[in-house]
Amino acid sequence: MTGERQIIAAVRSATFGIGDVVKHRFYPFRGIIFDVDPEFANSEEWYQSIPEDVRPIREQPYYHLLADNGQEAYVAYVSQQNLLTDEEGGEPLHPAVAEMFDRDADGRYRLRPGRAH
């Protein structure tokens, strides 16, 4: 395998799952995953709007997050390479979390029935 193919193969499998609380590697926001694309599945315009020097590769999982930055809540679309597990704990502040997720006895977030894509 060439170097680029090895990188692509390494990031094809999803590190995170639905209900995981994550934070962005560089930007100050965190969120809860509610959907996963096995590779980039957003618009070309969105992809090209990312500065080329920091633009992530397409061939990796991308995650849909109910995100918040402490001031506002929004939906984010983030590449796997830019996410980390959020070790801070605490409930994400996005108001849709309560509508979309239940918490199990272990504190994990589970999509409510009928909420899966």
UniProtKB/TrEMBL annotation:
Gene3D superfamilies, per database record: Hemimethylated DNA-binding domain
SMART domains attached to this UniProt entry: YccV-like
An annotated Gene Ontology molecular function: DNA binding
SUPFAM superfamilies attached to this UniProt entry: YccV-like
Hemimethylated DNA-binding domain mapped to chain residues: 13-112
UniProt keywords, alphabetically: DNA-binding
Keyword Cytoplasm: no
Protein name: Heat shock protein HspQ
Species of the source: Pacificimonas flava
